[in-house]
Write a structure and sequence with these properties.
Layout lengths: L1 H28 L3 H6 L6 H33 L2 H18 L5 H11 L5 H10 L7 H30 L1 H19 L19 H9 L2 H18 L5 H9 L4 H30 L1 H16 L8 H15 L2 H12 L5 H30 L2 H24 L8
Helix pairs in contact: 1-6, 1-7, 1-8, 3-5, 3-16, 4-5, 4-6, 4-8, 6-7, 6-16, 7-8, 7-12, 7-15, 10-16, 10-17, 11-12, 12-13, 12-14, 12-15, 13-14, 13-15, 13-17
Length: 404
């Protein structure tokens, strides 16, 4: 048991750094995707906004379709091999994006990258199956700080690189760090706790679906993943354009990186604390609190008049949104048998990716029609609705939240 705990701590440390490199690399380029599109030709603002949303969201179409399959393969064959495959594939895709010359090339390369996306959600499933239920929130919160730290540092490094070396070079250089993440996974040891000889070895997809549907709160938690991601991703691909409105074009990539990183800093402060708190008083209760707080914090973003007000709001938003993912995964860890967790988390990841698709599209088109400020009204409403749905589920099925 002691040796297993030591292996678990070592795996957690390795996956922390792997997530750090992946998240840092992805966020190095995410804030200026719209600016990269502008380098391909002389386009109108509406064209750039629309294609920013499309190229940002298309990655998640293929990721949405393949996440349950990947989760099921992880349950059956182990997640280590899949994590290595995804890290290497994503790194190569990112390198090729740095050589794109047209919007269509960028579109198809982002589509290709979707096959290898989901590294961070899969790593959460990898660590989750090695973690006792009673400390799942704290451990997954700790893992979350790896991707958060990368997300915090990545945009600022990306901003400096983009301003000094150009956007294409920044894409190419980030591919190295993603490849490094895939190499790190070679050094982890895979095992699962809570599996006995009497445990069922495999569940059919029909059995997995039945398990989800018979627990309305679990189903709602998974469906809410979509609404949360719509709220979170609607502003991200056009954040740099909002920074231009507030601050102007001077050092735009750097200031876009700062605005993007502010949410990561808030995440870093609170993700582990929210997870530990949820372990003690209940995952569903904490999720409700986080959703309602996020709804209140998001709304003032529509009324900011300078870049630093936006930075403060994104920092405050990070304090709340940072706890949602580890608390949600910890809840699924508690509700799903270990032998089907990969597939259940795969469906949850697909629902998240659905939000990642819809969010940028809504953000891109809303900003083109009504201005960027309109996005904050919509996203605040979605977060509020998510919290109210979960409250209604708790009241209707109190027996399902009694022990959480």
């Amino acid at each position: 048991m002691i040796q297993q705990q030591q292996v678990g701590k070592r795996n957690l440390a390795i996956m922390w750094f792997a997530n750090f490199f992946v998240a840092g690399s992805m966020t190095m380029v995410m804030p200026f995707l719209s600016l990269y599109i502008e380098t391909f030709g002389n386009f109108s603002d509406e064209y750039v906004k629309n294609w920013s949303g499309i190229t940002f969201g298309i990655t998640f179409v293929t990721a949405l379709l393949f996440s349950p399959i990947i989760g099921r393969m992880g349950d059956k064959f182990g997640r280590k091999k899949i994590l290595i495959f995804m890290g290497l594939g994503m790194g190569i895709s990112m390198f090729l994006i740095g050589h794109a010359n047209t919007v269509l090339e960028l579109f198809f390369l982002r589509l290709l990258m979707g096959f290898f996306s989901g590294f961070i959600p899969l790593s959460q499933a990898f660590i989750s199956t090695q973690t006792p239920k009673e400390i799942a929130g704290r451990v997954l919160g700790t893992l979350q700080t790896g991707s958060i730290t990368g997300s915090l540092i990545g945009p600022m490094i990306g901003g400096v690189l983009a301003d000094t070396m150009g956007y294409a070079f920044t894409f190419q250089s980030t591919s190295f760090f993603i490849l490094l993440s895939g190499v790190l996974v070679f050094t982890v040891k895979e095992y699962r706790i809570g599996v006995s000889k009497k445990s069922k070895k495999h569940y059919s997809s029909k059995e997995v679906w039945f398990h989800i549907l018979k627990n309305p709160i679990l189903l709602n938690v998974m469906l809410i993943s979509t609404l949360v991601q719509i709220a979170n991703f609607s502003i991200q691909p056009i954040l740099s354009l909002y920074v231009v409105e507030l601050h102007g074009l001077e050092n735009i990539a750097l200031f876009s990186g700062i605005a993007f990183s502010a949410a990561g800093l808030g995440n870093l402060f609170m993700a582990r604390k929210w997870g530990a708190l949820a372990d003690r008083i209940g995952y569903i209760k904490i999720l409700v609190i986080l959703l309602l707080l996020s709804a209140v914090i998001y709304l003032p973003g529509a009324f900011v008049t300078n870049i630093w007000q936006l930075v403060v709001i994104r920092f405050a938003l990070g304090l709340t949104l940072g706890g949602i993912i580890p608390v949600r995964v910890a809840y699924i860890r508690q509700e799903a048998p270990i032998e089907m967790q990969g597939e259940v988390l795969g469906y949850n990841t697909s629902l998240r990716f659905l939000g990642n698709i819809v969010g940028p599209l809504i953000g891109g088109f809303l900003s083109g029609w009504f201005g960027i400020s309109s996005i904050f009204f919509i996203t605040s409403s979605l977060l509020l609705i998510s919290g109210l749905i979960l409250i209604a589920s708790m009241q209707r099925h109190p027996e399902l939240v009694r022990n959480h």
